[in-house]
Amino acid sequence: MGVSRVKAGGWVLLALLIGCNAGCVGPTAADAAAASTGNDLLDAVPSGAFYRDGRLVLSYDLGGKQAFFSAAWPMDAPVAGQHSFHMALMAFSKEAPVRPAELAHDWQPVALRDYASWQALVRVLLERFAPRNPATAWLVTVQSADLVLHRDLAGRLQIHRLEDKPADLRVTRYITEEAFSAAANDHLRQELSAEGDVPGPVLFAVGEDEFGSGFVLFDFAHAQSVFIALEPDPAGPVMGLDFSIRMLDALTLRSHVYSAIRQPVTMTHRLFWLTAHSSVAMLPRGTSVVHAAPPVAPGESMDLEAWERELDRLVGRDRYRGSIRALIDGEAFFEALIQSIVNAEKSVDIRLYIFDRDDYALRIADLLKRRSSEIKVRVLIDRIGSLAAGRLPQGSPYHSRANPQLFIADYLREDSKVEVRLVDNPWLTSDHTKVIVIDRHTAFVGGMNIGHEYRYKWHDMMVEVHGPIVKRLAKDFDKRWAHTGFGGDLAFAIAAMKPGRYRGPADGPDFVELRPLYTRTGDPQILRAQVAAIRAARARIYIQQPYFSDDQLLAELIRARQRGVDVRVILPSQSDSGFMDSANLITARALARNGIRVYIYPGMTHVKAALYDGWAIVGSANFDKLSLRVNQETNLATSDPGFAASLERELFELDFSQSKEWSGSEPVRWRDYIGKAIAEQL
User: Which has the closest alpha carbon to 144: 361, 295, 382, 326?
Assistant: First the structure.
């Protein structure tokens, strides 16, 4: 895919910035008569559209023959004054999904509107949302495109992609895609309700650029709107073979032959460590014992100065000054990240487990490719993590139909100066760290990779840090970068002896002491520190995790609750792993039966954070064997009362209120125990 194909960043953005004069839905049905796939057919004009209770059927007349698209989504129970927004994927079929007689009599006909009508509606709404003050801007998400709106001195509307926003323009408000859809729903309903009746459903064609055709349905009776697009095509035989060869190469030659030559010490050490901890993970921890929970004791918090001295003994004396700010959810993190990349003067170093190949990841990739002609850009990603993630079916309807990418590393290197290295996976171990360093004076650390779900769908968190702590994080990157090169273990040792480089002040008014903690081969600092923190806590333990399968931490939390500590754990209602869902269910049951309050977050929370009295820890490590004992992970911890208070207020208290406390009524099935046994090795 050429760079120009993805730079536009979204249907609406392309139309508004470079203009699109299309006045119809697409080619005529006659033009599509020879269509043989859903991708071809979607560019034609539907001959009919029908809707009923969260299901849409589009019919196409192809010279006497018919073909169909159908889509379905969950119907929310209507709440007065609230609008719901959904995304759905369409399935293509040459057979009618519903009997024609039933469509004609029992389904609602849908009014079709062309792309020009959608463009006009969007323009009206963006004019409404743009702030009046020329010095401020609002960030609006429309069809997965982040648009920055402001007015010039003459009051004219100006629209920028987020990555092209003028540096001096301050974003003061964010309008979500849900809020934009609600405004569109209200505006349309007012236009169509001249006679006082609730108008019927309306379907807009909204696809005129590189990400392919799509539709937006407005169902006024149920106060909902839905973005609908064709399912991504499964990879053809050529791409499928390419992926299979790449994966076989990654699992064999790259991870176990080349790595043995370049990294013999690492290979041997990891095999020993993985074998030892696989055995340890199977040992019983006594978590099945059910205790009567005592009342929560109003105990005083642990002595944080004494606690930090204990940590010096347990994990080492490495502490660094720096500021720390929580960036909760994709809006906050990616706005800060993109602005930092745009403003970077010398370098951008990115170390991730997954750099996906979906629509949003390609936009970030395009920004990095553009900046690589001006500054040094290095990207370090886990080979199997990113390759496998790019192969998984995309849950987002925002994808490229015309130019799907197989592997993000190839795309980053194409027509750019971006340097890309891949971390190999001996014995199926991984580098799960997420650290991004900008100009060696700013760093981002936490749980987010780069991809659509991290920006728009999942609940997650990163922290932004400045100060001498960046020196340590930059050196960590340099060592891992050297390790993945030709020199392997030797290059890593040489890089470890070099002093770290940092560009920034030695101290500042908001600097506090920050402690980096790691999971490294033979050195599970994150596990040791959190086991000790659970034992030391006197008043409260708040934990949020996407995956909780570690029985040692579970047993320690039960013991803490027996001491009268207020222990609360937030888990997702559904994660992205069936095995981990089973592990979370069994863990939640054990926690609740022993008096620990378990909260189920609505949707996927990927946050990895904890408060132990006044000590806060955040980062990339899950509560599973791989993160705590085997993989490469990076967390940051601090006893600063200001950050602990902000984490309690902005993350935990808000998420407690948004989550449902688990009653323990959900049954545990035999397959959940099998899933838990598998998860304990993951």
Answer: 361
> Over the stretch 316-349, which tens digit does the pLDDT of each residue have?
999 999 999 999 999 999 999 999 999 999 999 9
Q: Average pLDDT, whole number, for the chain?
A: 85
- Left (φ > 0), alpha (ψ -120 to 50) or beta: where does 543 sit? beta
CATH architecture, domain defined by 514-679? 2-Layer Sandwich (3.30)
Indicate the pLDDT class of residue 672, thresholds 50, 70 and 90: low
pTM of the predicted protein model: 0.87
- Asked: is 247-300+323-511 a CATH 3.40.1280.10 domain? The reply is no
pLDDT higher at 399 or 556: 556
Say if 247-300+323-511 and 514-679 have the same CATH topology. Answer: yes
Bridge partners for 564 per DSSP: none
Per-residue model confidence (pLDDT) at position 487 = 95
Q: Residue 512: phi, psi to the nearest 5?
A: -135, 175
Q: Domain residue spans in the chain?
A: 3-120+178-230, 247-300+323-511, 514-679
For residues 210-226, b (16+ Cβ closer than 10 Å) or e, as one string? bbbbbbbbbbbebbbbb
Half-sphere exposure of 452 (CA within 13 A, CB side): 22
Who wins on pLDDT, 38 or 642? 642
- Gyration radius (Cα) of the chain, Å: 26
Q: Confirm if 326 and 608 have CB atoms less than 8 A apart.
A: no
Q: Are 464 and 442 in contact (CB under 8 A)?
A: yes
- CB 564 within 8 Å of CB 653: no
